[in-house]
Amino acid sequence: MKIAIISRNPKLYSTRRMAEEIVAKGHEVHVIDPLLCYMTIASQRPTIHYKGEELTEFDAIIPRIGASITFYGTAVVRQFEMMNVYSINESVAISRSRDKLRSLQLLARKGIGLPVTGFAHSTKYTKDLITLVGGAPLVIKLLEGTQGIGVVLAETGKAAESVIEAFRGLKANILVQEFIKEAGGADLRCFVIGDKVVAAMKRQGGEGEFRSNLHRGGNASIAKLTPEERLTAVRAAKIMGLNVAGVDLLRSNHGPVIMEVNSSPGLEGIEKATAKNVAGMIIDFIEKQAKPGKTKTRGKG
Ligand code: ADP
């Protein structure tokens, strides 16, 4: 097979590992920087060009689109889909998972457990919003934040109001969320491929830290999931339409609740914590699934 990894940086651990596994399984790999792709949009024969050459005869692509380039990156993935190339995660699903509010709304509609969450455009009724999500302590999040930056725990109603007003004053989009205290500063990263959780790790925040992000000094270890946690993770990925997803869960008193469904989950943390060949399992999945015309949406919707 001829497989492209759509990634800005061939040196990243995840990109490198998948490239290695593609070669080890006897396939051809190309790492393609989406920002250097250019395209023609025509009804008969859409094309993608890269460094002066037309990209042809790919059997499958693995999109690894960073959050900062979602707009152009998903357009490149969509173009491959229009050319009938199999994408392990489709452009529509990637865009969907990048929009935190849209994702939470979709998951809620299907009855997936979530922390009670509120959002508002105006700060006029902040007090009421705080009451609606159950009052302090509560978590306030920047919608655009990653790696735990812009995730704040407000211990009192007054603190919550100040933080919300400060963020909104800076024109930042936020959501407010019930604080899941019983999670004890830990979360579960469930790595889903197809309809299975293939690896799972528990991330524990540093001393006195409620955020479990490894970038914030948390540490990771292999996790044993309950059947309910597995089912929740697999269902969440399916609802988003992702074949490969990193589903983050918190253990709450009312069962597993979803934090986030990530469409380009990193491989380094999970492979090191679980000693599993996750990259190899992604390529196995492509070998089974990739066929021309298998793309469900072909970029529509
Ligand atoms: P990011 O996408 O920036 O990592 P998250 O929403 O995943 O932001 O939050 C970062 C971390 O903060 C989570 O992994 C979790 O440990 C903690 N956290 C986030 N929301 C809550 C919450 N509602 N209750 C308890 N802990 C939370």
Description of the molecule:
With 301 residues, the protein is an alpha+beta fold. The protein has three domains: 95 residues, 3-Layer(aba) Sandwich (Rossmann fold), CATH 3.40.50; 63 residues, Dna Ligase, domain 1, CATH 3.30.1490.20; 106 residues, ATP-grasp fold, B domain (D-amino Acid Aminotransferase, Chain A, domain 1, 2-Layer Sandwich), CATH 3.30.470. The chain has nine helices and 16 strands. Strands 14-13-12-15-16 form a five-stranded antiparallel beta sheet, sandwiched between helices. Helix 1 crosses helix 9. The protein is globular. The model has no long low-confidence stretch (mean pLDDT 93). It binds adenosine-5'-diphosphate.
- At CATH level 2, the architecture of the largest domain is 2-Layer Sandwich
Helix fraction bin: 25-40%
**Strand residue content:** 25-35%
* Strand order of the biggest β-sheet: 14-13-12-15-16
Straight-line distance between termini = 28 Å
Which distinct ligands sit in these coordinates? adenosine-5'-diphosphate
CATH homologous superfamily designation of the largest domain: ATP-grasp fold, B domain
How many individual β-strands? 16
Radius of gyration using CA atoms only: 20 Å
Order of helical and strand elements: EHEEEEEHEHHEHEEHEEEEHEEHH
Largest sheet: 5 strands, antiparallel
Oligomeric form: single chain
**Total domain modules:** 3
